[in-house]
Amino acid sequence: MIKELTPEEAAQLRELVKHRFQQSPFNGSGFRITQYKEAYQALADDIKNSAKEDAASISTHRLRKFFFYTDPSICPGDKLEKPSFGDDFIRVLFSYVASSSVSAQSEEPKPLPPDGTLTHEPIPATEQFAPKVLSLKWVWHSVAIVLLLVVGWMGWQYWSPPPYWTEEFTNVSVDSLKSRGWEILDYDSVAFGKQLKPGCLTLCTYPGDYWVKPTEQPSIRNLLVKPVTSGTCVITTRLMDFDPYHNWQNAGVFLFGPTLDRQVFFRITFGFDQSSGRPYKYGNLATNKTQAIQIVCQNGKIKEHRLILRYPEYEPVLSEIGIVLEVAKRKITVKYWRGHEWSSIEEQHQFEMELPFTAAYVGLGAFQGLTDNNGVPLGADTLPAFFDYLKVEPFAE
Q1: Taking the alpha carbons of 217, 218, 223, 228 in that order, is the dihedral positive or negative?
Q2: Which residues have a Cβ under 8 Å from the Cβ of 49 and sit 6 or more positions away?
Q3: CA 151, CA 94: separation in Å to the nearest integer?
Q4: What local confidence, expressed as pLDDT, does residue 133 receive?
Q5: Of 390, 370, 362, whose CA–CA distance to 267 is shortest?
Q6: pTM here?
Q7: Is the model's pLDDT at 96 over the cut of 70?
Q8: pLDDT digits (tens, 9 = 90+) for 33-44
Q9: Residue 35 — φ and ψ, nearest 5°?
Q10: What whole-number percentage of the chain has pLDDT above 70?
Q11: Which residues are 297's β-sheet partners?
Q12: Pick from 200, 165, 197, 192: which is nearest to 180 by CA?
C-alpha cells in the first residue's frame, strides 16, 4: 500500500530520523543531504541494523527521495516529488525512531560497609560537575519522552484508516483481505475458496438476502465489508461477466451504518427479474424477462427503485456493469454505466435517496434471494460474480 505523507508529516519524520541517527554509535561522520544516493549509505546501514527482519524495506534510493526529492526547502521545484512511499518504508522509519539509543546510564550502587554506616569520603574535584551531568541526563530523558510522544502521535495518524482508498483484489486470500481492513460476514470457507478469475474478487449467488420475510433470517454468504471513514465520497465498482437468468440472482454494492445492522441497509445491485405481470414492450415485441439495476433502502420500511438495463431475449450480454454512488452525508446519488459507456440515472429519472444513516461501511455481495411469494425456495443456479475493483474517492458536494 502506498502512503502519501503531508508536507508537515514528512518534515517532522525527517527531523526525527536525523536526530535518531545522530545518537547512534554507528553514525560515522553523519550524512549530507544530497541528490547522490551514496551519501545515505551509513544511515541505511544503521536503520537496517535496527530493523533487522524489515531491512529489505530500506534502500539508499528511498532515503534519497525521502530526504532530498520530497523536501521543498532543498529540492529544486522542477525535480520535487510527492512524499509517497510504501507503508513498509514508513513503518520501518517509525520503528527506527522509536528505538532511540538515547538512555540514561546509571552507575551501580556501591555496597555499604559491614556496620551499615555511610562513610564520608573526599569528593573528587571532578564531581563538582555532577549537577550538570545530572541535568544533562534529565534533558535526554525529556527528549526521549517528547520523541516517543511525537512518534506515537504520528504513528496514530499514519495507522488510522485512510479516508480514500482503492482495492484492486490482486490478493484475495482471507488473511490478506483482513490485513487490508476487510471483514467477511457470514463466512463460508468452501464457498469463498472458489476464486475463479485472477485480479478479481469472486462472490457467488448462494441463497440469501437482507430483504426477507418476517419469518426469515437476513443473511448473505461471504458479504465483504470495509469501513468508510469519510462522510462524503464517491464509491465506484465494476462488475464483470455476470449474466443472471433466474429470479433473483443479484450482485452489487451495499452501505451500512456503524452497527452493521442487516435490517438497516442500502444496496444497489444488478440482477434478473422475470415479471409475472404485464409484459414489457421491446419495440413491437413483448417480454417479461429483464436484467435491471435494483436499488433498495430498508429502515423498517422498504424503498425500492428498479431500472431496466437489458432485455436478455433480444439484446447482447453486458460484459461489464459500473456502479457509482455519490455520497454526501445522508444524501446519495446513484449512477451506472454498461459496456464501457457511461449513463447517468438522472437522464431517465432524477434519482436521489436519503439514507437512514451516515455510511460507515461499504460492502460487496452476491445472492439469489430465499423464497418466492408463496414461501417456496427460489432454487436458482449459483452464478459467480466478478468484482474488478472498488474505489472510495473524494467528492465535492
Answers
A1: negative
A2: 26
A3: 7
A4: 45
A5: 362
A6: 0.61
A7: yes
A8: 887 878 888 898
A9: -85, 0
A10: 78
A11: 266, 303
A12: 165
Can you give the residue ranges of every domain in the chain? 2-103+129-159, 165-393
| C-alpha cell recorded at residue 306 | 428498479
Joined grid coordinates for residue 140: 535526554
Q: Which three cell numbers stand for residue 150?
A: 511525537
Distance CA 88, CA 116 (A): 56
Read off the pLDDT of residues 142-191 as tens digits, 9 standing for 90 and up.
Answer: 556 556 655 555 554 555 567 889 999 999 999 999 999 999 999 999 99
pLDDT at 205 over 60: yes
Chain mean pLDDT for the chain? 81
Nearest one of 81, 3, 4 to 35, comparing CA atoms: 81
Domain 165-393 indexed as CATH 2.60.120.200:
yes
Percent of all residues in the chain with a pLDDT value above 90, rounded to a whole number: 35
